[in-house]
Structure formats: structure tokens, C-alpha cells
Amino acid sequence: MTETEQRQFEADARAYLTEQLGPRAPQALGFEDAFDEAPLDGEERTVLFSFFLEPERWCGNPLPPPRHYVAVGRTTPNYFPAYGLGVDDAYSFHVGLRFMLELEIGLVDPSREPPGAREALREFVRLCAPAARLDGDELAALFRCQDQHFAVYRLTLSGGPVYCLGADCPPGFYRLTEYPPQVALTLHLGKLIRAEARQERRLRSG
Known about the structure:
Radius of gyration: 19 Å
Number of strands: 9
Largest sheet: 5 strands, antiparallel
Mean pLDDT: 93
Strand content: 25-35%
Number of domains: 2
Distance between the termini: 27 Å
Structural class: alpha+beta
């Protein structure tokens, strides 16, 4: 990517953030990376910048401005809290967020947890972390994706908290329990979508 192209992407990011945030739009953006992948339809070159978002003035005694990412380019632009994510995971989160918005994945009542999902979760933990001690599990949130249900469980493994994805969602562990469960699900879906797209490219090129 040329310097001219980077400046244009930065201008696009500034325009988008001004539209979304008005006077709270950041004065400084930091270039993070460009991703030339196509994990979703309409997703081509995407550029990530980071910035610090000033809190609303009515927040009283606010904490330091939280770090955010903004994604622009050949994609649907979006901005979101950094959640402590590195740049590659931030791009995965962006992909997962696009997927969740387009499919309108949303929270549903926990009573709709699929039968056997909890038992399958415990078996997955036994197989993938045999040395860990499962001290407890609870359903943190349940989401509907068309005719499927994606569960985010909060586990206590050997005394420490962790999220685990389950039900109709391919399983995976994330140490993001200081954030809402949808953060783990969004990141997980983005990682899965990117991995599947890479596998399809390898098969086509092979």
C-alpha cells in the first residue's frame, strides 16, 4: 500500500468517525495494518486504525479514554473497543461483527439452550484440557443464528475463569471474561470465517 493510499484510507476513517461520533471524533489516528483477504462477500482490502475515544461529558470522573479500532476500505466500515485485542485479532473481530450484523445474530432466552449442549461442553473440556479441573460452568449467553443456537459458557477451570463456545457453534476457549460474552463469540466467529476462507483458497490454488 502506497503512502497516498494510506492517507486516503485515513481520510475515509476520519470522515466515518466524524459522521458517527460528531464532536467526539478523535483528532489522532494510528495506522495499524491492512488486510487483503476476502473472508466474506464484499470484504476485500480492509485497513485498521486505532484511536482513543473520549468519554461522554456526563460520565462524571471517567477513566482514561479507552482504545478503539476503526475498519475502513473495501468493507462495511465499523468501529469498536479494542478489548485488549492485537491487530490480527481485531481484524477477526471486525469480520465476526460484520457476520453477526448481516445474519442478525442476537440474544435469546437461556431456556432455549439445546438439549445435550452442556454435556457436550463438558466432554469437550475433558478431551481438550484433560489436566484442567472443571470447577463450574454456567451459560453466560445464548444467541440465535438462523435455525441454530450459539452458546457462550463461563467456566471455572482450575480456579480461573474462561469462556467456552458451544451448542451449535464450533467450540473454542477465550480468556476474555472481563468483557461481555458476545465479545468472545464475535472474535471466535471471525477467526472461524477467516480460517475457512484460507482453506478454500488453498484448495483452489492446489
